[in-house]
Amino acid sequence: MNSPRRALRPLRPLRPLLPLALLLPLTAACGTSAGATGGTAPKTVTVTVGYQSKTINTVTAGTLLRSLGYFEEELRARGKKDGTTYKVEWQDYATGAPITAQMTAGKVDIGSMGDFPLLLNAARGKELKQPTRLVAVTGYNLRGGLNTVVAAPGSAVRSLADLRGKRVSTSVGSAADGTLVRALQRAGIDPAKDIQKLNQQPSVGASALAAGSADALSQFVAWPGQLAFEGRAVAVYDGAELNLPTFHGVTVREKFAKERAGVLDDFLKAQRRATDHLREHPVAAAESVAKDTGLPPEVVYLYNGANGIATFDPELRPELIAALKEDVPVLRSAALVGDVDVDAFVDPAPLKRAVQAPAYPTASAAKPELWVKGQKTTLTFETPKELLKAARGADVRAAYVPDAVTGTLWFADKAVWVADGTELRAFVTPAGAQRYVDGRAGARIVRYAEAVELAS
Hints:
A six-stranded mixed beta sheet has the order 2-1-3-10-4-11, sandwiched between helices. A five-stranded mixed beta sheet has the order 7-6-8-5-9, with helices on both faces. The chain has helices spanning 20-29, 63-68, 70-82, 97-104, 115-127, 175-186, 202-211, 223-229, 254-259, 261-280, 282-293, 297-304, 318-333, 342-345, 349-354, 384-391, 430-438, 448-455; strands at 43-51, 84-92, 110-114, 132-141, 147-151, 167-170, 196-199, 216-220, 234-238, 246-253, 311-312, 369-372, 379-380, 396-402, 409-411, 416-420, 423-427, 444-446. It has 456 residues and is of the alpha+beta class. Pfam families: NMT1. Residues 1-28 form the signal peptide.
């Protein structure tokens, strides 16, 4: 951005006087230097990044990246070469909508948000003639497990079918809202007529659920996991049942991307470094994010851990872009967008230009994992039964187990367990466990404590 103008010394009268039109360009050009007292002073460029600290699968472009200082490091190196002082202003938001508002007003340069908000970002940018571009991904789940519908403990709501006539809190236009709409439609429930949808911020919805003014809550990472961990909610629908990819990504103002291409490159390099750090040091990264956000580390690790629900990778994978295109009709039917040209919105060139490191492998199936108190690393197991054996008698900080069908990781003591012969299987929701039991003679639902005993 342009910095304050250098003070001008009084001009001696000119004979003949120069026309005013010739003086104006000379005066305006002085605005390119900052605080000069003589000669040319270094320019100062401020880069504003909008992020969502509580949406923890955006941390490689937000909370974790900020704490590691990688972006600032990259910019300092650039500044030594071009004589510019770069500053980063980090702005924290609860959802993607206000980031989009600030971007289209030219006040935020780079932002991160979920797939549905990204489409709104594209549509709003085009409408206001402040176009934006999707340049990277932060975290993704190929089945859609980042979104979950939860109900209060002891509630009669145990499945989607129980939501008829009920009040469901969600953030309209969010990925969680998209999951809710699709899930209800697949279950033969009209989301516009058969439920009362409450359009609320995640924190407001969590309070409404606790107060009983909402019967269920459909939200994105990390709200469902946090409420379940704290005993304030139980899962009733696992977004991975949709088997549709969901992700969060990085969007940038097109004008900024053109004028500050090198700065955008530095951001993407820094994001890749933060992603490397998270993948190589998942426990330390989770504890760092927890410290900065106030979230329990165990909840952060559920999503961001070595076997977490989110896979961190900046690459704009084809399956994610294909899923983004499938999201457009959902938003269009809700009159939130018209047509969105996804291909024009997605720009893989900056990431290819900035990062030459090898691509990460595609996400693999999650494995059970045990976090023992006092340990800086976790233990990974091949089967849920092995996890339960190890958990018995251990000073457990957290135990995680993947859903037997969807693969979504969940807290072992919050999961619904099924004993099937000598095998023990876990499910995120009661409905998922019941479907399995109904199809397997002799299988039965057991409590977590009984599952631990059976494993031993």
